[in-house]
Amino acid sequence: MKADSSFHINFKLQGRSFSSKEELIDFSFEISSEVQIFLKQWFNEENFVQVKTSGSTGKPKLIQLQKKHMINSALATGTYFNLPENTTALLCMSPNFIAGKMMFVRALTLGWNLDVVQPNSNPLKNINKQYDFSAMVPLQLFNSISQINFIKKLIVGGGVVSNELLNKIQNIDTEVFATYGMTETITHIAVKKLNNFNSVISNADEKSHYKILPNITISKDNRDCLVIDAPKVSNELVITNDLVELISLKEFKWLGRFDTIINSGGIKLIPEQIEEKFSKIIHQRFFVAGITDELLGEKLILVIESSSDTVSSDEILWNIKNLKLVTRFEIPKEIYFIEQFVETPTNKIHRTETLKLL
């Protein structure tokens, strides 16, 4: 299959087959202008697609992804999850961003039957048919639990899956996987199973390990951050800001972000690990951060998306201390309430901009 001129003979969109790329592009406008814009990009004469990064860890920027690398990524996903031609797939994410674009590339490359619905927080609301595969962000999965049986295999990315959501998906038939990746690696390069565990797994910690896809090599730099060598999807080494523990040459455990580490009185605190512990008692959206403090350099604070009328900071502190969820260094010095967090274009919490509201 040539990336710039053709697509798999079995590809279908909204149940319809197409004899040419022109016919497909014309039809796509009936779905949305965003879908049509991407398909025009995909079938143009360039050997790359221009993509905007999410902006969750910095200012969004435009980068160029090679079409041959995007096809390689699609092939790897199809092989790893056993999704051959005629797979039925649901796209419920925006084609403006890499996750949505790659669902199209997988379908075009592998010959899937792809249905597209308007991206929103409850994408299965009007769905009444079975799909082999789909991709969602955690919020979409959370709101779709009652209908998630319509999806056989689901990948979840774009945010941390909370303990509350993990508990909700343990007894469903859908196979759910967390993915690790970024725009620069053309979505996921590693996958972590979230439910339907084999009883043979006795060590609960093994459930938190990401397993890398084929043709990828991982290592750590001197900051203990993940370095990805994935020649089939990137011409360069991808040096991340993700702190990891390497379990083996094929597995790693994600610990948090290097650029969010809080140095409080000489004690290094990893926000993501603290947040995982707090998620057992806080059910609203929240995050922890460090702000300037004369004595400590930085002090740990907790920011909750709520009005202070609905939850008490004293009650939260009492639960944190008495349930012994964290060490004494991980107890927040201040708790702030914000009615609505600032979000990135991909609906992730924009921590930097949200903190400015304080």
Strand order of the largest sheet: 1-5-4-6-7-8-9-10-14-13-12-11
* Tally of distinct domains: 2
What is the helix fraction of residues, given as a range? 10-25%
Number of helices: 9
CATH class of the largest domain: Alpha Beta
CATH topology of the largest domain: Rossmann fold
CATH superfamily of the largest domain: ANL, N-terminal domain
The structure class reads: alpha/beta
Going by CATH, the architecture of the largest domain would be 3-Layer(aba) Sandwich
The arrangement of helices and strands along the chain is EHHEEHEHEEHEHEEEEEEEEEHEEHEH
What is the mean pLDDT? 90
- Whole-angstrom Rg: 21 Å
Summarize the biggest pleated sheet.
Answer: 12 strands, mixed
| Percentage of β-strand residues | 25-35%
- Please give the alpha-carbon distance between the first and last residues: 53 Å
User: Low-confidence runs (pLDDT<50, min 5 residues)?
Assistant: none
Kindly state the number of beta strands. Answer: 19
Characterize the overall form: globular
Task: Offer a few descriptive terms.
alpha/beta; GMP Synthetase, Chain A, domain 3; twelve-stranded mixed sheet; globular; 358 residues; Rossmann fold
